[in-house]
Amino acid sequence: MDIFWNKKGTLQKVHHSHLRNSLPQIFREHDKVWVDMPRFGKDEEELLRVYFNIHPLTIEDCSKVSSRPKIEEFDTYLYVVLYGLDVQGHFTQLNFIIGQDYLITVQHRQIASYEALKRDDGKIQALLGRDTEFVMHYLMDIEIDKYFPILEHIDDQMEKLEERVTHETGNGPVHEIFHLKHQLLTLKHHIAPQKEILFALSRKGNKFMMPASTDYFRDIYDHTVRALDDIENYREILNGILDVHFSVTSNHLNDVIKVLTVFSTIFLPLTLIASIYGMNFEHMPELTWKYGYFIILGVMLLIAIIMWLFFKKRHWA
Amino acid sequence: MDIFWNKKGTLQKVHHSHLRNSLPQIFREHDKVWVDMPRFGKDEEELLRVYFNIHPLTIEDCSKVSSRPKIEEFDTYLYVVLYGLDVQGHFTQLNFIIGQDYLITVQHRQIASYEALKRDDGKIQALLGRDTEFVMHYLMDIEIDKYFPILEHIDDQMEKLEERVTHETGNGPVHEIFHLKHQLLTLKHHIAPQKEILFALSRKGNKFMMPASTDYFRDIYDHTVRALDDIENYREILNGILDVHFSVTSNHLNDVIKVLTVFSTIFLPLTLIASIYGMNFEHMPELTWKYGYFIILGVMLLIAIIMWLFFKKRHWA
Amino acid sequence: MDIFWNKKGTLQKVHHSHLRNSLPQIFREHDKVWVDMPRFGKDEEELLRVYFNIHPLTIEDCSKVSSRPKIEEFDTYLYVVLYGLDVQGHFTQLNFIIGQDYLITVQHRQIASYEALKRDDGKIQALLGRDTEFVMHYLMDIEIDKYFPILEHIDDQMEKLEERVTHETGNGPVHEIFHLKHQLLTLKHHIAPQKEILFALSRKGNKFMMPASTDYFRDIYDHTVRALDDIENYREILNGILDVHFSVTSNHLNDVIKVLTVFSTIFLPLTLIASIYGMNFEHMPELTWKYGYFIILGVMLLIAIIMWLFFKKRHWA
Amino acid sequence: MDIFWNKKGTLQKVHHSHLRNSLPQIFREHDKVWVDMPRFGKDEEELLRVYFNIHPLTIEDCSKVSSRPKIEEFDTYLYVVLYGLDVQGHFTQLNFIIGQDYLITVQHRQIASYEALKRDDGKIQALLGRDTEFVMHYLMDIEIDKYFPILEHIDDQMEKLEERVTHETGNGPVHEIFHLKHQLLTLKHHIAPQKEILFALSRKGNKFMMPASTDYFRDIYDHTVRALDDIENYREILNGILDVHFSVTSNHLNDVIKVLTVFSTIFLPLTLIASIYGMNFEHMPELTWKYGYFIILGVMLLIAIIMWLFFKKRHWA
Amino acid sequence: MDIFWNKKGTLQKVHHSHLRNSLPQIFREHDKVWVDMPRFGKDEEELLRVYFNIHPLTIEDCSKVSSRPKIEEFDTYLYVVLYGLDVQGHFTQLNFIIGQDYLITVQHRQIASYEALKRDDGKIQALLGRDTEFVMHYLMDIEIDKYFPILEHIDDQMEKLEERVTHETGNGPVHEIFHLKHQLLTLKHHIAPQKEILFALSRKGNKFMMPASTDYFRDIYDHTVRALDDIENYREILNGILDVHFSVTSNHLNDVIKVLTVFSTIFLPLTLIASIYGMNFEHMPELTWKYGYFIILGVMLLIAIIMWLFFKKRHWA
Known about the structure:
Structural class of chain A: alpha+beta
Strand order of the largest sheet of chain A: 2-1-3-7-6-5-4
Radius of gyration of chain A: 36 Å
Oligomer: homopentamer
């Protein structure tokens, strides 16, 4: 648990036992406090329950790893849950409890942006100096912006796939498409529910936030909308690539079968002719002709050429 | 019929004939009563109609096995229908009639969560001690949470299918996909209509429920939304798996046909050559050459090798 | 034209010329009248226009056979159009004109539920005794409930189809699917527009209906919603069955082609060998070997076995 | 430009120069005027701009051939744009400017319904006698009703197609489906935006229209909704027919390939046997058997029969 | 930075240092100013921040190249972002800051319409003479109208494709379809979010715009809606073309395979017969018949004719 207290304009890092005693003073003098809880244990729970007077349902939600994004207004605070990305790139739940003079953040995994901010006293002081909601905005902003490199990576892979799919048959492309669609679904699954939360933050004239800050949250909201737009777009493009893939596969089959057909239809008649003159009838006049063999070879060649031209004309060969 | 009466803080299990007489007292003193009706017969109907003064349409709905989820506000009570899962895992209708001081639950099959609660006097007393709606919340919560193990099971099966589909042709995968989609449709069919019911319970400042309890119902509502989200997600993934399956099937066909084509186009010319030298013409100069046979074998081998290389280059062999 | 007049609590069947004269009295004493018009001719039109003072547009709509479901509020009455099923099972337009003290029903074909009710004086008296809208509710309720046997029949056929589709190729299943989808579309086409009408009847505190009756119409509304839900569900299942059908067809093709490929690739080399030893070269050493013939037969057998094993391993045979 | 002036109940066809002078009197005495502009030139523009005081944007819209349907309320008039069908059956823009006492209609092509009405003085007088909006309603009603013969024609073609598709392969059916879908798209593209316009006319208690007329526009609105419903329905049916077509095509392929497979697998072994006994080995004992030839023919026949039965059993032949 | 100042009705092009000093006078006398910033550097930022008192978030947005379209109302101005097309035909962000008496436009690439307007003093004076929002409308109008030539070009390509797809197999058509869909997606991606912006401008009675101008913005809004309608329409048509393509490809395959099947099934039996009479059995009576050879040739011809007629009847040949 890391606690940052902007005591009359001076940033202090305090211990949580110390915080408990100072809370009445903080609330009286409207000093701003940010309590970050990178893990959620007994102490954290007690602090929330006893000293900040947080509703049991909120505490329960904070302690869980898998909540859906939500925004809930309680009497003395606003409870917001969003997704962030931990250092391994997995989505993880970020809890924000924002009251009149405090911001409490709870998460269950290491978040790079949180750690970076906590090492930057100047930044914290500046943000707390404006208000606790600017700390919240700063953290959310960084987390939402993490989507764009992921989307760009997907875009790159799609472009390569678009290229590959035109000449490659086999199951490679469809697996790739499936994999990318899966990624987009996962992203959408996590981003979509955040849209309405951020819309609420950017609109609602709620009592825990300064009117001035809604403009900032509108900005994050816009980013979320853009990310969702991109996802929808990419999914459509992937469907188009899938159509190309199926068409390429099916045209490839046609090509293979054309080769088979052309070869078979040319060689079957020739083989028949050869077989006929291989029959052992006693009376087969052609067999005794002097140039019979060469005439037949010529006839075979002629048939082959005619059929070839026929297929050539039909663009089969 | 099981009746639990929280008489001035003490839990009592009373007989329904006794309840009938005590009702005026209960209503006067605002004691809380939970009447559970695991079967719905003459007695139950009479109790509802005569003593609790329930509307005939509600009684009719309670007596039916197949109602859609609904929420209906009447003058003296709120009528809610949701789905639960009975001990065989089938969806079944759960009726809740919640008035100022009573909760009546009606269902037609054995529900594990109800039976468990009824054996736990302490729990009932605690819940009734807060209010009848907490009994309702407790039961609904358990029932809604039953969806998640089902969804996880489907998720597991999908993951196996994702693996299987890449190397298995035949109709197995498509049957599996159909089966899973069917399950998801059934789930959605039952869960979707509950969403708006629970939304109403978590929002509506209605007279039969304490404002404090809406936070709890919002929680169940959130779970329902998450379940529906998951279902939609899974359906999309199954569609992706289906695409993979069709691609794998169609590429497999291509592979088989390539083998056929390569074999045919290599052997047809060779057989023609052999047939030609099997002809019985009197004048076939090559037949008398000393090494004619070996030259022809050599020519055949050469043709075979050239064609093989040709197909190799086109990645058909 | 059949007229039922609940004159001070006694049901009377009156002639329409008699009704015309009694109307002022009826309206004055708020007796309830139900006028059923199973055909719509000159007399009926005159009655509506002159005596009940119905708007020309409503009369025009009543006289037409093909109106869309609608609800229109006029100054002195409410005009509702729904679909019913005639005795041949075809959808037909049902018109309801409900004023303060009268219900006029117009339809152009024989409706079983109407005929049954008109033969049951006790029932009519009971319903008119409550109010004219309960006659309307009674008729609508029966008509809406007719959808469910149809849906169940479709469900049965789908189940059989699910079974059939796994082993039957050919166009049979796809025709069946098309036929069932067509039926569902027709149902949806007729039921969907009724939903909002019934919603209006179950909500709207309009002046021609008692507040108490809206609960009853909400019940019919619920049935309509359930029917539409089922239709949507069935359509999804049919799409799933179609996927299975296409997969089965395409796997069957694969199987056929595998047989062709396996046979061809085994016999082509053998035939080549036989053809080679059928050549008439003068110098073919093997031909003079004592066991040449048997050696070659052995070689052929060996090749056949090896290739068979090869295909066996690739699961093609 | 054709001008119809209902001067104190008498219909007058006036010249536009005459109209300009009479306008103040018309407006003062609330006579009703219908100005039809079947072409839009300098005179028409001047009349609108100077004498009727129409907004420049409306005039610009009237002068254009390709506006989207719209309804715009200005200070002194309501501007409505819908689509009509000209005598060649092409969609064309119909402009309606309806003020307190006048209706101005502008279109750029010959519309049959307009011409017919303009030849029918009695009808115009009757309509203007009620109000200018009844002229508008009359024209719109005829135009909207033109959709239904088109839709019926499409329905007929679909029914024929449904029949044809079951036995016809080739690209004919898919072209027909494409063509019909294209037609439906064009219809929808033109009808869909009119829906909200007509909804506005049938609801809005706007100052330029009598309340009584909204019932009439609701009627046209209903027709539009029905047309759109039908279009949606037809598109679904066409998709179903497309599925049937693809299934028929693919089953036909299966049938063709089965014939190929059955023939090949029967004749390949027989040809091998014949080839074997065509080999020229010196020591082939069977060749000298007295009935060798007939035994071998018998063996061939046996193999052929066995294979045929085998395929018969698998329903391939 | 180009500054146009309509000083008491006379257009002046001023330098930005001069503007800074004149601003108080401008604001006092309600002169209209248009500041165009075709690039955004230090000076521009300072002007916005210090002299026009623009919110830091707006300045940040202006400085970025990739914002989503948006409309944001601030205390002293309205901030609008739309897309325009630069001279290379790429979408680029257009920023509009419109206050009581000024319009500031910021973009990062050369826009043809802006450059053209800035060279036309008369036009600027006329527009500024009406109000700054007419400058904004003029610029937006030209940019939105740029979509239609693009859409027409796509329409032309689709028509060619419709033609091509009926006789061309191979992957050409599907690539073309993919390419066109991609273009439509890009267009939609940029146009769709503008719709609501323009709707807001055409509705909202906001304080920075004259009521009279909303009619003009409604016009642009209509264009946007039409463009989106067209895009949706084109996408549907492309899907139809794709269906035709897949059908043509699949029917082509059928045709190729029919040729293969017909040839194989005709020649396989004939070759068998020839092979049979090529066997070397000592006792083959037919071989010694005088006309044996000709009888067999006749039998072969007969078989070939019969099979040909058989396939002819099945429409395979």
